[in-house]
Design brief:
With about 140 residues, the protein is α+β, with helices and mostly antiparallel strands. About 25% of the residues lie in helices and about 20% in strands.
């Protein structure tokens, strides 16, 4: 799964792909069918790369990309609008060891919603590019 360049923007629904950068911030394109473009100014908005997002765990934090891989292997993914109990039960299966006091139902809904956006995209089946090794 290749999530490089896929971001979430605070205060904006959905997910975006970074398509460029200018002096005031980043140029993004929405991943929905509308393909809206917007410029995000980093001094006024927060942007988080899905590649770097982690979920609170009881021992260690869980990487979002690993949770997506488990969701992909799951036989049935609940709707993001399902009730909190069924979402929590599902999340216990795909993210064992998550901290149930710190991970809220709204977080689980967001992760399921993001999964539903990403599963139709070609990058979902791509291998993540290897990070560049430092040269001596």
């Amino acid at each position: 799964m290749n999530l490089r360049g896929i971001v979430s923007v605070s205060g904006k629904p959905g997910l975006y792909k970074v398509i460029g950068q200018n002096k005031s911030g980043f140029v993004l394109e929405s991943l929905d069918e509308q393909k809206l473009k917007l410029v995000v100014n980093l001094s006024t908005s927060k942007m988080a790369s899905l590649e770097d997002i982690t979920i609170f765990g009881e021992d260690d934090d869980l990487k979002l990309i690993e949770i997506f891989e488990r969701i992909k292997e799951s036989s049935s993914v609940p709707d993001a609008k399902a009730d909190g109990k069924s979402l929590r039960s599902f999340f216990r299966e795909v993210a064992p060891g998550h901290d149930e006091e710190k991970v809220y139902a709204s977080d689980i809904k967001k992760i399921v919603n993001w999964f539903n956006i990403l599963k139709e995209l070609p990058l979902f089946a791509e291998e993540a590019p290897a990070s560049a090794a430092p040269q001596d």
